[in-house]
């Protein structure tokens, strides 16, 4: 197993929810000497300084100030949330007095069956009353197999292999314990948070798969783990951001929450978070409003979110001339209706960077008769508009509880994005671009 695959699997393990992912990223940035900034205090930024800022404990932006003047921003953005089930308020539900279930609802769009018949656990954030009028947030991750969503026996559901429609309110509720476990859930969460149950005033708790990631295949060419979409991009772009040398641009590393539910929250890619941070970088460096707009005109963004590899059982689901495979390099994603932001300009700039870095790349498009997914790039562009390319790594079973990707691609993405962060893409003004490596 390569070092980077080992580190990716550790990153995934320590990131059961978006909150934990941001905490994992924060730890890595602190280790590397980054200074935390708060949105609620004035910022003083120094040339050569390294900073990060967190919103809602579930989105994070980090940047470095070059020693000299800078021309623009060189951004890479990914997302840290994944489809799962959110635990509802008053979750305990008894069945015939003998079972205790947890009431949940869908967060994002998952493959239901992949969540069944496997041990699951619970993690997230609780809001705790610490004193009268004083509320603090605490992260919890129950580190034991805790619940399970059992399938119905085939003898009781003969249509299960013939297109059965799963009802999230009926078929997908996890079993937590027997009838005598009543009242136990809140207690277990409170214990994990180190507080008493009555002091929990609010919570954002989710089911998660705690099965460790693994490398497999004839030559160890595949890796499978939970939450590869999109923590694989969050991890690889973080490593690239940390490894990159100084350029004439401000490198910006961003990870956003809520991509799986449309990004429309105060901390999602459709919020003002990126805009606010870039604007404040400019004003802290004395560049003002005009400086912000001129910098944006010479800025570039990579929106990194995984892509669909050709499926071995269903190669016909892929576009006939843009076949994407695992271990064949960074995927550049295109869509005529701009669900992906990539256009001729951003594809050209990014391909030139990959070529210079010696990193393989490939091109993805949906079949023309399939809608495909979307991601955060085009949404972010409505707040901060700049040349953007949508990229990702090829994977199978997107939104499964256990997804599969290629082991070689981890290093390809780190190398490609290190070259990206070390370079500076500038618009010349007449539709031409220069890239300073
Ligand atoms: Co994604």
What does this 3D model show about the protein?
With 437 residues, the chain is α/β, with parallel strands linked by helices. It folds into two domains: 291 residues, Zn peptidases (Aminopeptidase); 126 residues, Roll (Aminopeptidase i, Domain 2), CATH 2.30.250.10. It is 24% helix and 29% strand. Strands 1-2-3-13-4-14-18-16-17 form a nine-stranded mixed beta sheet, sandwiched between helices. A five-stranded mixed beta sheet has the order 11-12-20-19-15. A hairpin with a 3-residue loop joins strand 5 and strand 6. Helix 4 crosses helix 9. The longest helix has 16 residues. The chain is globular and about 70 Å long. The mean pLDDT is 96. It binds cobalt (II) ion. Cobalt (II) ion binds next to helix 4.
Characteristics:
Aminopeptidase i, Domain 2; 9 helices; single chain; 9-stranded mixed beta sheet; alpha/beta; binds cobalt (II) ion
Q: Which bin fits the share of residues in helices?
A: 10-25%
What is the domain tally?
2
Rg to the nearest angstrom? 22 Å
Estimated share of beta-strand residues: 25-35%
What's the CATH architecture of the largest domain? 3-Layer(aba) Sandwich
What small molecules are bound in this structure?
A: cobalt (II) ion
Distance between the termini: 31 Å
At the third CATH level, what is the topology name of the largest domain? Aminopeptidase
- What is the number of E strands? 22
- Integer average pLDDT: 96
Question: Residue ranges: pLDDT <50 for 5 or more in a row?
Answer: none
Q: Can you tell me the overall shape? A: globular
Instruction: Name the strands of the widest sheet in spatial order.
Output: 1-2-3-13-4-14-18-16-17
Number of helices: 9
In the CATH hierarchy, what is the superfamily of the largest domain?
Zn peptidases
């Amino acid at each position: 197993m390569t070092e980077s695959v080992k580190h990716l699997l550790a990153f995934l393990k320590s990131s059961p929810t978006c909150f934990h992912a941001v905490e994992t990223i924060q730890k890595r940035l602190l280790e590397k000497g980054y200074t935390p900034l708060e949105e609620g205090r004035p910022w003083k930024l120094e040339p050569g300084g390294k900073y990060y800022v967190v919103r809602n404990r579930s989105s994070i932006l980090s940047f470095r100030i070059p020693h000299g003047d800078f021309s623009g921003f060189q951004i890479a953005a990914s997302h840290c949330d994944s489809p799962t089930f959110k635990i509802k308020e008053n979750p305990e539900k008894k069945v015939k007095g003998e079972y205790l279930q947890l009431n949940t609802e869908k967060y994002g769009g998952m493959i239901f069956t992949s969540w069944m018949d496997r041990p699951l656990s619970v993690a997230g954030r609780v809001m705790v009353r610490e004193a009268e009028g004083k509320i603090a947030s605490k992260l919890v991750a129950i580190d034991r197999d805790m619940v399970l969503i059992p399938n119905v026996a085939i003898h009781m559901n003969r249509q299960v292999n013939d297109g059965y429609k799963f009802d999230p309110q009926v078929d997908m509720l996890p079993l937590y314990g027997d009838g005598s476990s009543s009242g136990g859930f809140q207690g277990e969460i409170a214990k994990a948070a180190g507080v008493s149950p009555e002091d929990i005033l609010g919570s954002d708790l989710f089911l998660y798969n705690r099965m460790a990631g693994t490398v497999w295949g004839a030559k160890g060419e595949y890796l499978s783990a939970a939450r590869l979409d999109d923590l694989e991009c969050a991890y690889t772009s973080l490593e690239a951001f940390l490894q990159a040398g100084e350029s004439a641009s401000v490198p910006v590393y961003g990870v956003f929450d809520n991509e799986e539910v449309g990004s429309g929250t105060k901390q999602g890619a459709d919020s003002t978070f990126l805009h606010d941070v870039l604007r404040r970088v400019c004003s802290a460096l004395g560049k003002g409003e005009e400086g912000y707009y001129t910098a944006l005109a010479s800025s570039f963004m990579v929106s990194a979110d995984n892509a669909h590899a050709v499926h071995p059982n269903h190669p016909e689901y892929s576009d006939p001339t843009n076949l994407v495979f695992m271990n064949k390099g960074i995927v550049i994603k295109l869509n005529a209706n701009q669900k992906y932001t990539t256009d001729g300009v951003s594809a050209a700039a990014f391909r030139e960077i990959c070529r210079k870095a010696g990193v393989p790349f490939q091109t993805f498009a949906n079949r023309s008769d399939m809608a495909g997914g979307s991601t955060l790039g085009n949404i972010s562009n409505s707040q901060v508009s700049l040349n953007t390319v949508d990229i990702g790594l090829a994977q199978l079973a997107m939104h499964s509880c256990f997804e599969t990707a290629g082991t070689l691609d981890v290093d390809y993405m780190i190398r490609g994005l290190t070259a990206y962060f070390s370079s500076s893409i500038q618009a010349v003004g007449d539709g031409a671009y220069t890239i300073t490596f």
